[in-house]
Design a protein that fits this description.
The chain has a single domain (18-101), classed as Ubiquitin-like (UB roll) (Roll). Helix content is 7%, strand content 26%. It has one helix spanning 40-46, and strands spanning 21-25, 30-34, 65-66, 69-73, 87-88, 94-101. The longest helix is centred in the middle third of the chain and has 7 residues, at 40-46. The protein binds FE2/S2 (inorganic) cluster. FE2/S2 (inorganic) cluster binds next to loops.
């Protein structure tokens, strides 16, 4: 098990964390599907949502994006516990079910 700075067990060995999930762009009335093996950042970019990115693996925080609702599986190493209440890194983090974005 890898110890993260928030002390939580993120269960990185849980294969279910790579399941498909959805991103709802609430102001655009669009729902995007993020399949296993593809990042949310990639899906957003393909839909025309430009999010600046840096490292691509959750360490720089450049891509940090606000969400308003949903269960995010945080896999970054840069956001604080407080940041994770309302932001996630779509380059690496995933979700369960549907994540609502104010876009
Ligand atoms: S691009 Fe660096 S955390 Fe996402």
């Amino acid at each position: 098990m890898t110890e993260r700075r928030d002390g939580a067990d993120h269960g990185a060995d849980d294969a279910s964390e790579d399941d498909t999930f959805e991103l709802e762009l609430v102001w655009s009335d669009v729902v995007l599907t993020v399949p296993a093996g593809r990042s949310a950042l990639d899906v957003l970019a393909a839909a025309g949502v430009a999010i600046e990115a840096g490292c691509g693996h959750g360490s720089c925080g450049t891509c940090a994006t606000e969400f308003v609702e949903g269960e995010v599986i945080h896999r970054d190493t840069c956001l604080s516990v407080a940041d994770r209440e309302h932001e996630f890194c779509p380059c690496i983090s995933r979700g369960r079910g549907r994540i609502i974005l104010p876009l």
